[in-house]
Amino acid sequence: MYLASDARIVYSGNWSDLIIPAEDLGGDKSATYRTTRDLASRVSFTFNGQEVELTYFSGPENGMWFVLLDGQPILDEDTGQDLTINAYSPTLRYGESVTIAAPEPGEHTLELYMAQKGGGDQMGLASIEVLPPPRQSNLGVIIGMIFLVQLLGLLLAILFGRALFTSLADKIDTKRGILIALSIYAIIAIWGYFLNSVFEFWFLAWMVAVVQGGSQALSRSLFSSMSPAAKSGEFFGFFSIMEKFSAIIGPLLFAFAAATFDNSRPAVLSIIAFFIIGGYLLTRVNVEEGRRVAKAEDAALLRLNNG
Questions:
Q1: Is the four-CA dihedral 248, 252, 255, 257 of positive or negative sign?
Q2: Residue 25: pLDDT band by 50, 70, 90 thresholds?
């Protein structure tokens, strides 16, 4: 929603602000309309979308507006003629609105100017709102693609899985498995920055599902293998506390990046920092030494109890 005073709405010619009191509008807030009586005045607004809604007022001194989209007239489907906005009315009416639609979504430039007097020579604009794109359901296609991918994966596993991945599975231990999952998460975040379609979103969701459960299970398994059985409560208490911290720090970083750049795409990209830091810390962990210390701790406690 862009009010008439917003810098993104560009005016040419002589314009002035008209403040309408709340009591005249029948509400609890006043409204400001930017008005002109200069027939050479124009309004220009560049937006990214497909539809915009203009809010204006009509009255006995208002005229008819001509509408251009990307420098070309818009065809009125009802009349078959060039689209115009008739702002003339025998009585003053505030909060009038009209929706203008482009043939396709994308970046467009809307222009308004006085087409003819039509009873008056005044224009008055309150706001321009960029509307959400028309919803189109791709659920059937998405479900079909997911089913096809799963079927293809099943066939490949049956036909070539043992030959291709047996030796690979022997080489990938728990630690390497977690690092691979973190790398895939980083790829997902980078792709999320450039995300531009519903299909891509669902494919990214499928990629998350591929690594989400496995990475969490492997993380707990690796952590438990280095935890002494007698101190498992202490170790997993610490694990749980860190998990709660991540639920706070992650959204904070996301919100900070979104507020800083005024865009959620850099915020999606910012979470890669967690994957990089986590992956680096994991590479510094000596898993075999951790397991040896845990076993030694359990053995020492067992001897103490038996003694």
A1: negative
A2: confident
